[in-house]
Amino acid sequence: MPKIIGSSLSEHREQVRNRVFDALRHQLYERGFDAVTLAGVAAEAGVGRTAMYNHFPDKESLLVAFVEAEATRYVSRMTAAVQAAGDPVDKLAIFVRLQLRSLAEYHLPPGTALGSALGPAAYRRIAAHADPITATLREILREGMDAGRIPEEDTSILIPMITAALGSRQVVDVEPGQLDAAIEAAVRFVLRAVGARV
Using CA atoms, how far apart are residues 104 and 54, in angstroms rounded to an integer? Predict the structure, then answer.
């Protein structure tokens, strides 16, 4: 019988998932999604292959569970950071910084590449996690427009343009010592692009 980690079965499951996600996060950062294997993640996590398959029957289910957990944590952090700022332009700058830091940390294939790596149902589950992020951006822009800090524009046009700009890996694929400067340049770009009154 495998050794139980933690004081209960539910705590054991949670700790196994955390170890697996830590290993997957490391491998995504080091090698990218295509090079990840369940056996490799299990070995790095110190989890038996049978236990790994009990939790995640295939690579796709592992990625979906990982993205769901990361997205939930990210949305909570983003919401708290944005709500802590009083000014809508500051909120937009915080939003941009968080999005780019997140992009710099993970090496998931973007957009259409991710769609081809996953089945349609799995891709829809992952894509649904962008909804609260998009809703937050819409609220920030609307608040800025209502306050006269951002010129009135159609948010259905602005949002895809901003998200396209923030989805470019070229912005964050820089030397580590240059990342802060690259992110701040992107913040200034987005603020200028929406006509924010700083």
Answer: 31
- pLDDT by residue (tens digit) across 29-45? 787 778 889 999 999 99
Q: At the topology level of CATH, where does 1-57 sit?
A: Arc Repressor Mutant, subunit A (1.10.10)
Find tokens 């964050």 and name the residue: 172
Q: What is the pTM of this model?
A: 0.75
Distances (CA, A) of 17 to 37, 61, 106, 190, 197: 16, 12, 18, 37, 45
**Terminal alpha carbon distance of the chain:** 62
Other beta carbons less than 10 A from residue 82's beta carbon:
19
Residue 107 has pLDDT above 80, yes or no: no
Confidence class for position 115, pLDDT limits 50, 70, 90: low
CA separation for the pair 49, 64 (Å, rounded): 19
Three-state secondary structure call for residue 174: coil
CATH number belonging to domain 64-193: 1.10.357.10
Going from N- to C-terminal start, the domains of the chain cover: 1-57, 64-193
CB contact burial 33-55 (16+ within 10 A = b; e otherwise): beebebeebbeebebeeebbeeb
Rounded-to-integer distance, Cα 196 and Cα 198, Å: 6
